[in-house]
Write a structure and sequence with these properties.
The structure holds two protein chains of two kinds.
Chain A lengths: L5 E8 L7 H4 L19 H4 L30 E3 L12 H9 L3 E4 L4 H8 L4 E4 L2 H13 L4 E5 L4 E4 L2 E5 L4 H9 L3 H6 L2 H14 L12
Parallel strand pairs in A: 1-2, 2-3, 3-4
Antiparallel strand pairs in A: 1-5, 5-6, 6-7
Chain B lengths: L4 H7 L2 E4 L5 E4 L2 E4 L5 H9 L10 E4 L16 H17 L3 E2 L9 H8 L7 E4 L13 E4 L2 H10 L1 E4 L3 E8 L8 H12 L7 E6 L1 H4 L3 H9 L8 E3 L4 H7 L8 H11 L12 E6 L6 E3 L7 E3 L13 H14 L14 E4 L7 H11 L10 E4 L4 H9 L2 H8 L2 E2 L20 E4 L14 E4 L2 H10 L10
Parallel strand pairs in B: 3-4, 3-6, 4-5, 6-7, 9-10, 9-12, 10-11, 15-16, 15-18, 16-17, 18-19
Antiparallel strand pairs in B: 1-2, 2-8, 13-14
Helix pairs in contact in B: 2-5, 6-8, 12-14, 12-15
The chains are: A alpha/beta, B alpha/beta.
The structure holds iron/sulfur cluster (SF4).
The site of iron/sulfur cluster (SF4) has 13 residues of chain B, from loops.
Chain lengths: ~220, ~475
């Protein structure tokens, strides 16, 4: 997992409610069996005027009206979004696509649960700020070319230049994992004995959970 | 202390709790499909990690599979590679798999319960958001991402935090022709698509107790569309009767012991929930969505709302954008909306009872001339076989519907079944997002009865009076 400590970057505003995972990375790109190659198809339906297919080699026609295509937002690493960002499917391809495009943090009033989780597990930081603060940020970003923010995970604060914009919450364990770039599997494998103890207890209490299917190998 | 059903399920699966409340949670069952698992298996290979308990997993290909001429194989090369990858991964890691030609193959959320691989008291995960379906059995079931799929394969555990609890009581007797799908849509309409965020929703009340397991699955399936992680229904006789004799369910003395334990899987009488809602379903109408989010829903006698009447600017814009995408004018009566395509299928509504409900609306009539295609896609091979034994396939085909092989099909259009740009569809699936059923396609979510009635009439109809 990519570490996350502090990110200073240009902000790109995506002013839509309920941005779903199919908008973030449309389903035809989920047929891949690799973990990379999704960045170019981030927001594919909005970003290009022509329909995209996986592995397509012909050049695409960008939609000049879509915010990510505007020259002033090129190189942005912070996405400003609206409520319920990432709703819909469980596809982890959504955070993979955002990261590959260059987004390191998303600031929004709320996120869908699975997307929020998936983001943390990949070093993409979802930052929840109050609705009123988000409204002000949308105005500020529109008004100021080159508007950037700094997101500091250690202090859990967001700054614009030196002014503090707001503080955000994150679970201590998740914060630690992000700061260290720790992977859940490694952490869990170190607790193998505890898992075995639990299983032994459960096997006794609820043996049917460990039974094999009838007529099935 | 009095506990909710959610608390009981959670507490019995905690292996270890950390200071900030994050828990190492044991997972009893993982369901695996082809789209969200290849990178998980690749991750295991890359770090030479093995599986903790291969037999705790059950795999089936569903999202990409063709729904006709299956014997000819998969023509789309990328879909084929993904399904071949699943087969190879299951073989190499000894994960039980229902292959594409197995009668038990079908949509993962139909197959699990049908096999009894979904049992009360379990924790169940799958790399798919509609895993909430399995909560109908008094199991804690939710969707996870690919990193978590990999973690469960490797350790049978996940690092999670406890959800907040919500109880939605659905009280009263449903009017004739109104069912679980209408209740699900009405709940989402009331809560909004983010209303359940961070929550596990327990569906309770007399209308839920009166539902079959199929209906409860429909309800829990759509809990995710209200933003909830999980849906839950307490165990009762209906649950136990459904499970008896299923291949993965216990039998003999073990069955008796299991049943005794399962009867305790209910919320204690005085348990406290973080949020409570109550909805009277006694006068509930069939529901139809008009927009690009499941919360954009009205009763069938309603009209398409006017964005100008929406006070919140972000919501006003979202509604205007949705109506533009759906090509609908404010004030249009729902029953004046004509459909081009009808899709009866998906993990929400492709079980035997759903197909029976749909077939009962047809009664010897034919598709309306304006309806270009109508697909019936059973949820599994076993559902298909049972429906054929009752002659439902003939009811559909004689009316002009296509009778297909099981899979996700036009629910998300990853295979060849999809809407053309601009086509309008009455669909029994669960999501009406832009492009969900095909780029430019327009989706109206409805119950199986409402979809079948729209196919016959050519537009939405109030099935309580007409047909
Ligand atoms: S039927 Fe639709 S919602 Fe259900 S698992 Fe398949 S794609 Fe997902």
């Amino acid at each position: 997992m990519q570490r996350f400590e502090r990110e200073t970057g240009l902000v790109v505003p995506l002013d839509r409610l309920n941005v779903d995972t199919d908008a973030i990375i449309p389903k035809q790109f989920l047929k891949a069996v690799a973990r990379s190659g999704f960045g170019i198809n981030l927001f594919d339906n909005w970003r290009y005027l022509d329909h995209g297919e996986p592995g397509q080699e012909t050049a695409r026609t960008p939609n000049p009206d879509f915010v990510l295509n505007k020259p002033r937002y090129q190189g942005a690493s912070i996405l400003l979004a609206r409520a319920n960002f990432g709703c819909g499917s469980s596809r982890e391809h959504a955070p993979w696509a955002l990261l590959e495009y260059g987004i390191r943090a998303i600031v929004a009033p709320s996120f869908a649960d699975i997307f929020y989780n998936n983001s943390l597990k990949n070093g993409l930081l979802p930052v929840v700020l109050p609705e009123a603060v988000i409204d002000r940020l949308f105005q500020a970003v529109e008004a100021t070319v080159g508007y950037s923010l700094t997101i500091d995970l250690r202090s859990q604060r967001v700054f614009a230049k030196d002014e503090e914009i707001g503080a955000f919450a994150i679970d201590a364990f998740r914060r630690e994992c992000l700061l260290e770039g720790l992977d859940d599997i490694g952490w869990t494998q170190a607790r193998e004995a505890e898992i075995r103890d639990y299983e032994a207890r459960r096997r006794h209490e609820a043996p049917w959970l460990f039974a094999q299917a009838k007529g099935h190998s | 202390m009095a506990k909710t059903l959610y608390d009981k399920l959670w507490d019995s699966h905690v292996v270890r709790e950390l200071a900030d409340g994050t828990c190492l949670l044991y997972i009893d069952r993982q369901l695996v499909h082809e789209v969200t698992s290849p990178q998980a298996f690749a991750g295991l290979r890359a770090r030479a990690r093995g599986l903790w308990r291969p037999e705790a997993n059950l795999a089936v290909a569903d999202h990409n599979v063709p729904t006709r001429d299956r014997a000819l194989g998969i023509t789309d090369a990328t879909s084929r590679r993904q399904i071949e990858a699943l087969e190879r991964n299951c073989r190499d890691f000894h994960v039980p798999l229902f292959a594409m030609d197995d009668i038990r193959q079908g949509i993962v959320h139909v197959v699990g319960p049908e096999q009894g691989a979904t049992l009360p008291g379990m924790t169940i995960v799958c790399g798919d958001s509609h895993t909430s379906t399995h909560g109908a059995f008094g199991a804690l079931a939710y969707g996870v991402g690919t990193s978590e799929v990999e973690q469960v394969l490797a350790t049978q555990c996940l690092l999670q935090k406890r959800s907040r609890t919500m109880r939605v009581r659905l009280e009263g007797t449903l009017p004739k022709g109104v069912g679980a799908k209408d209740m699900a849509l009405a709940v989402i309409g009331k809560l909004g698509t983010a209303g359940g965020t961070g929550c596990a929703i327990e569906f309770a009340g007399s209308a839920v107790r009166a539902l079959s397991m199929e209906g409860r699955m429909t309800l829990c399936n759509m809990a995710i569309e209200a933003g909830a992680r999980a849906g839950l229904v307490a165990v009762d006789e209906t649950t136990i009767t459904y499970l008896a004799g299923r291949p993965f369910a216990p039998s003999g003395a073990l069955w008796e012991r299991a049943v005794a334990a399962w009867r305790g899987l209910v919320s204690d009488g005085d348990a406290q929930f973080d949020h409570e809602w109550e909805i009277d379903v006694g006068a509930l109408a069939p529901q139809v969505t008009y927009g690009t989010s499941p919360e954009m829903v009205v009763p069938v006698e309603g009209r398409v709302p006017d964005p100008a009447a929406e006070r919140d600017p972000a919501r006003r814009e979202a509604l205007a954008a949705a109506l533009a995408y759906m090509d609908l004018r404010p004030g249009t009566a729902i029953t004046d909306i004509a459909v081009d395509v009808v899709f009866i299928g998906s993990c929400t509504n492709a079980r035997l009872e759903d197909l029976r409900d749909a077939a009962a609306m047809i009664a010897g009539r034919r598709l309306a001339p304006g309806v270009r295609r109508a697909l019936v896609v059973p949820g599994s091979g076993l559902v298909k076989r049972a429906a054929e034994a009752e002659g439902l396939d003939r009811v559909f085909t004689e009316a002009g519907f296509e009778w297909r092989d099981p899979g996700c099909s036009m629910c998300l259009a990853m295979n060849a079944d999809r809407l053309e740009s601009g086509e309008r569809c009455a669909s029994t699936s669960n999501r009406n997002f832009e492009g969900r059923q095909g780029a430019g396609g327009r989706t109206h979510l409805v119950s199986p009865r409402m979809a079948a009635a729209a196919a016959i009439a050519g537009h939405f109809v109030d099935i309580r009076h007409d047909l």
